[in-house]
TrEMBL record:
Entry-linked InterPro entries: Calycin (IPR012674), DUF1934 (IPR015231)
Organism: Desulfosporosinus acididurans
Name of the featured protein: Putative beta-barrel protein YwiB
Pfam families in UniProt: DUF1934
Amino acid sequence: MQKNVTVQILGSQKFSEGHEDQQELSVPGTFYERNNAFTVVYKEPESVSGFEGVTTFLTAKKGCVTLNRKGSVDLLQEFQVGARSISKYSTPFGKLWLSVLPQRVESDLTAQRGRISLEYDLFVDDNFVSHNLLWVTIKEDNPHESL
Protein backbone atom coordinates (compact mmCIF):
# COMPACT_ATOMS: atom_id res chain seq x y z
CA MET A 1 0.00 0.00 0.00
CA GLN A 2 1.31 3.44 -0.93
CA LYS A 3 1.68 5.95 1.87
CA ASN A 4 1.98 9.71 1.73
CA VAL A 5 5.34 10.82 3.11
CA THR A 6 7.58 13.82 3.52
CA VAL A 7 10.97 13.36 1.87
CA GLN A 8 13.88 15.40 3.21
CA ILE A 9 17.01 15.45 1.07
CA LEU A 10 20.41 16.78 2.03
CA GLY A 11 23.23 16.58 -0.46
CA SER A 12 26.79 17.83 -0.49
CA GLN A 13 29.41 17.80 -3.20
CA LYS A 14 33.14 18.45 -3.05
CA PHE A 15 34.30 19.26 -6.55
CA SER A 16 37.67 18.39 -8.06
CA GLU A 17 38.56 22.12 -8.20
CA GLY A 18 38.21 22.26 -4.40
CA HIS A 19 34.93 24.13 -3.86
CA GLU A 20 31.94 22.62 -2.09
CA ASP A 21 28.18 22.90 -2.54
CA GLN A 22 25.17 21.80 -0.51
CA GLN A 23 21.48 21.40 -1.27
CA GLU A 24 18.61 20.81 1.10
CA LEU A 25 14.96 20.33 0.27
CA SER A 26 11.78 18.84 1.63
CA VAL A 27 9.08 17.53 -0.71
CA PRO A 28 5.90 15.46 -0.50
CA GLY A 29 6.08 11.96 -1.92
CA THR A 30 4.76 8.42 -1.78
CA PHE A 31 6.40 5.38 -0.24
CA TYR A 32 5.75 1.66 -0.64
CA GLU A 33 7.27 -1.77 -0.16
CA ARG A 34 7.17 -4.38 -2.92
CA ASN A 35 9.26 -7.52 -3.56
CA ASN A 36 11.53 -6.92 -0.53
CA ALA A 37 12.38 -3.41 -1.74
CA PHE A 38 11.27 0.02 -0.52
CA THR A 39 10.55 2.76 -3.06
CA VAL A 40 10.02 6.47 -2.48
CA VAL A 41 8.63 8.58 -5.34
CA TYR A 42 8.60 12.37 -5.48
CA LYS A 43 8.40 15.19 -8.00
CA GLU A 44 11.41 17.47 -8.19
CA PRO A 45 10.38 20.98 -7.11
CA GLU A 46 10.12 23.73 -9.73
CA SER A 47 12.84 25.61 -7.82
CA VAL A 48 15.45 23.01 -8.87
CA SER A 49 16.70 24.33 -12.20
CA GLY A 50 16.76 21.78 -15.00
CA PHE A 51 14.50 19.31 -13.20
CA GLU A 52 11.12 20.83 -14.04
CA GLY A 53 8.59 18.04 -14.58
CA VAL A 54 10.95 15.32 -13.32
CA THR A 55 9.77 12.47 -11.10
CA THR A 56 12.40 10.70 -9.01
CA PHE A 57 12.16 7.07 -7.86
CA LEU A 58 14.58 5.88 -5.15
CA THR A 59 14.48 2.13 -4.54
CA ALA A 60 16.41 0.44 -1.73
CA LYS A 61 16.99 -3.23 -1.11
CA LYS A 62 19.74 -4.98 0.80
CA GLY A 63 23.07 -3.45 -0.23
CA CYS A 64 21.73 -1.60 -3.27
CA VAL A 65 20.00 1.71 -4.01
CA THR A 66 18.66 2.63 -7.44
CA LEU A 67 17.94 6.21 -8.51
CA ASN A 68 15.63 6.63 -11.51
CA ARG A 69 14.63 10.05 -12.87
CA LYS A 70 11.97 10.40 -15.54
CA GLY A 71 10.63 13.46 -17.32
CA SER A 72 12.60 16.30 -18.90
CA VAL A 73 15.70 14.31 -17.91
CA ASP A 74 16.15 10.54 -17.88
CA LEU A 75 18.67 8.78 -15.68
CA LEU A 76 19.03 5.36 -14.07
CA GLN A 77 21.88 4.95 -11.55
CA GLU A 78 22.66 1.98 -9.33
CA PHE A 79 24.63 2.30 -6.10
CA GLN A 80 26.47 -0.75 -4.69
CA VAL A 81 29.62 -0.39 -2.59
CA GLY A 82 32.72 -0.85 -4.71
CA ALA A 83 30.83 -1.37 -7.98
CA ARG A 84 31.21 1.33 -10.61
CA SER A 85 27.90 1.91 -12.36
CA ILE A 86 27.74 3.63 -15.76
CA SER A 87 24.56 5.30 -17.00
CA LYS A 88 23.32 7.55 -19.78
CA TYR A 89 21.98 10.92 -18.58
CA SER A 90 19.55 12.34 -21.16
CA THR A 91 18.66 16.03 -20.96
CA PRO A 92 16.92 18.44 -23.34
CA PHE A 93 20.43 19.68 -24.24
CA GLY A 94 21.97 16.31 -25.04
CA LYS A 95 23.33 13.15 -23.46
CA LEU A 96 26.18 12.52 -21.04
CA TRP A 97 27.74 9.34 -19.73
CA LEU A 98 27.84 9.37 -15.94
CA SER A 99 29.33 6.84 -13.59
CA VAL A 100 29.25 6.51 -9.82
CA LEU A 101 31.65 4.64 -7.56
CA PRO A 102 30.00 4.26 -4.13
CA GLN A 103 32.01 3.96 -0.92
CA ARG A 104 28.91 3.75 1.32
CA VAL A 105 25.36 2.58 0.59
CA GLU A 106 23.12 2.35 3.65
CA SER A 107 19.38 2.10 4.10
CA ASP A 108 17.35 1.71 7.25
CA LEU A 109 13.71 1.58 6.19
CA THR A 110 10.45 0.39 7.72
CA ALA A 111 6.91 0.58 6.36
CA GLN A 112 6.46 4.05 7.93
CA ARG A 113 9.84 5.78 7.78
CA GLY A 114 13.53 5.49 7.29
CA ARG A 115 16.67 6.85 5.77
CA ILE A 116 19.01 6.26 2.86
CA SER A 117 22.64 7.37 3.02
CA LEU A 118 25.04 7.38 0.06
CA GLU A 119 28.68 8.37 -0.30
CA TYR A 120 30.10 8.15 -3.80
CA ASP A 121 32.39 9.64 -6.43
CA LEU A 122 30.78 11.02 -9.60
CA PHE A 123 32.45 10.86 -13.01
CA VAL A 124 31.42 12.37 -16.36
CA ASP A 125 32.93 10.59 -19.38
CA ASP A 126 35.40 8.85 -16.99
CA ASN A 127 36.59 12.20 -15.58
CA PHE A 128 36.25 12.71 -11.81
CA VAL A 129 33.80 15.53 -11.05
CA SER A 130 32.94 15.37 -7.35
CA HIS A 131 32.80 13.44 -4.10
CA ASN A 132 29.17 13.30 -2.96
CA LEU A 133 27.19 12.64 0.19
CA LEU A 134 23.42 12.17 0.01
CA TRP A 135 21.04 11.69 2.94
CA VAL A 136 17.36 11.00 2.30
CA THR A 137 14.94 10.86 5.23
CA ILE A 138 11.40 9.53 4.73
CA LYS A 139 8.61 10.05 7.25
CA GLU A 140 5.00 8.97 6.86
CA ASP A 141 2.54 11.86 6.95
CA ASN A 142 0.16 11.53 9.88
CA PRO A 143 -3.06 13.52 9.37
CA HIS A 144 -3.85 13.15 13.10
CA GLU A 145 -0.70 15.05 14.17
CA SER A 146 -2.29 18.42 13.35
CA LEU A 147 -5.38 17.77 15.50
